[in-house]
């Protein structure tokens, strides 16, 4: 996840202004499935669960596996805690992105010096929450909707992001179940979400403390 964030961070400055210009056009020409998917999605103020991540690097057969726990808290941000194979934590808020290794801060990006921090937070929050209305400002959305499930493919609107991320696939129902990110380099990341809980009790004391 850290590598994906850095890839997006490098690409965002080149198209942030263009993305703002695309917003009105994207909303005016919203694909039919988007509204249906938004209606299907649960929108709890707090959502936590397990993730299992598999990353296949271009030219390598054996994928790199990781798992852990994630939390999405509206108006506050995202917590991404890798438990295996090596414990580390990413905390994304409106003002900063912090990468912890144990109790040590390994990386910090501050919105005051890195203007893309807020947009990175919004992109990741929208991906995990399935907020296609927000994602449609930056990506072309194509997909299908069933009785209780949906799937979409996202393609970057601007060349700068398209050079970093080829496509993103999401599928789910009331929540996002899977995300597959196919990078332009040939790397592929698959993330499966499970054991999703919502509500204030979903956030553990240690996790809540990281948002204070």
Automatic annotation (TrEMBL):
It comes from the Bacteria. SUPFAM superfamilies: Prokaryotic lipoproteins and lipoprotein localization factors. Keywords: Lipoprotein, Signal. The keyword tRNA-binding does not apply. Residues 1-18 form the signal peptide. This is Outer membrane lipoprotein carrier protein LolA. It comes from Pseudoduganella umbonata.
């Amino acid at each position: 996840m850290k590598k994906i964030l850095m890839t997006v961070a490098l690409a965002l400055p080149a198209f942030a202004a263009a993305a703002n210009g695309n917003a009105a056009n994207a909303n005016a020409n919203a694909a039919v499935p988007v509204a249906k998917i938004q209606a299907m999605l649960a929108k709890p103020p707090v959502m936590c669960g397990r993730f299992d991540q598999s990353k296949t690097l271009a030219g390598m057969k054996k994928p790199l596996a990781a798992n852990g726990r994630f939390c999405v808290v509206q108006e506050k941000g995202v917590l991404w805690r890798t438990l295996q194979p090596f414990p580390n934590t990413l905390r994304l808020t409106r003002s900063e992105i912090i990468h912890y290794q144990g109790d040590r801060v390994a990386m910090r990006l501050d919105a005051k010096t890195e203007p893309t921090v807020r947009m990175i937070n919004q992109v990741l929050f929208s991906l995990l929450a399935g907020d296609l209305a927000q994602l449609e400002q930056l990506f072309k959305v194509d997909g299908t909707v069933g009785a209780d499930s949906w799937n979409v493919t996202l393609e970057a609107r601007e060349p700068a992001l398209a050079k970093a991320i080829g496509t993103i696939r999401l599928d789910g129902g009331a929540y996002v179940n899977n995300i597959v990110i196919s990078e332009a380099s040939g790397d592929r990341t698959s993330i499966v979400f499970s054991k999703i809980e919502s509500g204030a009790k979903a956030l553990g004391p240690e996790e809540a403390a990281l948002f204070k």
